[in-house]
Amino acid sequence: MPDVGEGLTEAEILAWYVRPGDPVTDGQVVCEVETAKAAVELPIPYTGVVGELRFPEGASVDVGAVIITVTEAEAEAEAETETETETGAAGEAAPQGRQPVLVGYGVAESATKRRARTTAVPPPPLRSNGADARPLAKPPVRKLAKDLGVDLRVVIPSGPGGTVTRDDVHAVLGPAAPRRQPPRPTAAPAPAAPAPVAAADARETRTPVKGVRRATAQAMVASAFTAPHVTEFVTADVTRTMKLIEELRQDKAFEGLRVNPLLLVSKALLVAIRRNPGINAAWDEQNQETVQKHYVNLGIAAATPRGLIVPNIKDAHARTLLELAAEMGELVTTARAGRTPPAALRGGTVTITNIGVFGVDTGTPILNPGESAILAAGAIKLRPWVHKGRVKPRQVITLALSFDHRLVDGELGSKVLADTAAVLEQPKRLITWS
Questions:
Q1: Lower CB density within 10 Å: C or N end of the chain?
Q2: Which is catalytic among the residues 170, 317, 387, 405?
């Protein structure tokens, strides 16, 4: 069991995709595990045959424990020629056979070295549309192509006016191979992890706390009793922002993207951080230093079946509204599918939690460890509001900002919260303040 995160000590095996006797190839995913941060698929770094699965699905395994053994194809070939090797020239020692190996780790020392993989797929020819021709594609599509390593010049566009769409990019890669789910192994595995235990009278159910939920609980306790929290609240009229959201949803540039209040709240907070950069910092207790961050990795709290996780958008401060919408859509989709990579859960600087989706007006959020501020966005509701001297029904939201009072004083925290609310009340400030 390799450490697939940062200093993790154990992981739970969620599913095996192979069984003893199955052939495997270098890079093939053999199982899925859940760490304290996310669900991760583990590839096998060798080509050979599965020998044994040491743990069943549902078992919690310490990092470093052997979970699967594989006999490499090269080792089998060596075994077939063992007799010939032993009777070779005098004084020559026969090479030792390779031993079963562990996913993510090396193999036993041997005179045999792995042959380099030479299979390569040549790139498709570029279309003859001129050396200076730049394919037409929206920013989210360009980012998708970049992330997948696809050259837009080789993509055949199907969108209006010859624009490249997301489907066009995926078409270049070809259809994804379906994941194989073989029957569970028949070998006698180690005892499974304890399941929820019901009391004799069925009035209680006890469930072991592990994985994401345990990590979240430990982090929240550490944060609550380490950083002195202060929470401030503001209620703002977001009627204009809601109108802007409807306009953006009709804009072809945002077609297929998530355009919702959270997007505008995120952008408003980023503008406020730019105007008040001191909020984007961290307290280094060990060195007794404050660490000012010159970038914003914006965390978005996401509720998943495995518990609450907070993946973050790297360098969110440099994203346009269109790019931010694409990033948030990808973040939410990946989190709900349980495929958030560990790297996306590290390095956050400021977080937003959207409790409004549950119909909650406000709350007092707890800081993520290592961060100085977290903003809770409440539900947007129609309320009586004084607008231009008259009481009218307006769409209103309550924002709550918690911050670390060791490095953020009341003035700085108040300015950030007030600026965020001001942008949401007058979204035209996105243009003048950005």
A1: C
A2: 405
